[in-house]
């Protein structure tokens, strides 16, 4: 290796659960999606972000940064040469994952994974926890389909008169 790669780590403030929540936000997606970008020009970039410190209410915030500072922060999320995202590498990589996990379970003496049937219609709530992002009303489950099954063709929901 040409240079040493040093990890800066500090003790977690919220315990192991907070560390896991933090890492899960960054290991399986890009640093920022296009849908979060509000505006950009030569001087500034404006984007939406979620404040995970706020537990209830509106956690969406808007931040405006100088373009060079935005690029600096974005590049902090780019992995060095030779490194791979967690989901594409190691024991849980797609290639041979079932075989590897079965061997790990056998070596650890753990139970084999139970493949439960999908939940029945009686156990699924009729509404979702999250309100509709368009009107704020409750979202109702109108169809349940298994993996690989195509949903029925439907028209988009109608907008309610204000």
Automatic annotation (TrEMBL):
Q: GO annotations under biological process? A: DNA transposition
Q: Name one Pfam family in it.
A: Y2_Tnp
Gene Ontology MF: a single term: transposase activity
Question: Which protein are we looking at?
Answer: IS91 family transposase
Residue stretches making up the Transposase IS801/IS1294 domain: 2-95
UniProt cross-references to InterPro entries, sorted A to Z: Transposase_32 (IPR007069)
């Amino acid at each position: 290796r040409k240079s040493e790669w040093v990890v800066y780590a500090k003790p977690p403030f919220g315990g192991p659960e907070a560390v896991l929540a933090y890492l899960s936000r960054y290991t399986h997606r890009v640093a920022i999606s296009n849908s979060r970008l509000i505006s950009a020009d030569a001087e500034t970039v404006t984007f939406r972000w979620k404040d995970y410190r706020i537990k209830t209410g509106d956690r969406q915030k808007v931040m405006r940064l100088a373009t060079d500072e935005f690029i600096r922060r974005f590049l902090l999320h780019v992995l060095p040469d030779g490194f791979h995202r967690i989901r594409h590498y190691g024991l849980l990589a797609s290639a041979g994952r079932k075989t590897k996990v079965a061997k790990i379970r056998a070596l650890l003496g753990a139970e084999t994974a139970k493949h439960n049937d999908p939940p029945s219609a009686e156990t699924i709530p009729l509404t979702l926890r999250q309100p509709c992002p368009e009107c704020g009303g409750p979202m109702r489950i109108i169809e349940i389909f298994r993996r690989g099954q195509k949903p029925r063709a439907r028209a988009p929901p109608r907008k309610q008169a204000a």
